[in-house]
Design brief:
Layout: H1 2-46
């Protein structure tokens, strides 16, 4: 019984870890997009199109 519980707990932790990786990767892409938008706006203001 302990072995089954241990395997189920390990599987649950592994699944949670994989989900967290996808979430962090998505957040990184969102931050990259926001950074590009700030960069583009700064370039526009630098060229007098602000």
């Amino acid at each position: 019984m302990k072995r089954i519980f241990s395997v189920l707990l390990l599987a649950l932790c592994t699944a949670g870890s994989l989900t967290a990786c996808n979430t962090v990767a998505g957040a990184g892409k969102d931050m990259q997009g926001a950074g590009e938008a700030v960069h583009d706006t700064a370039q526009d203001c630098k060229n007098g199109k602000c």
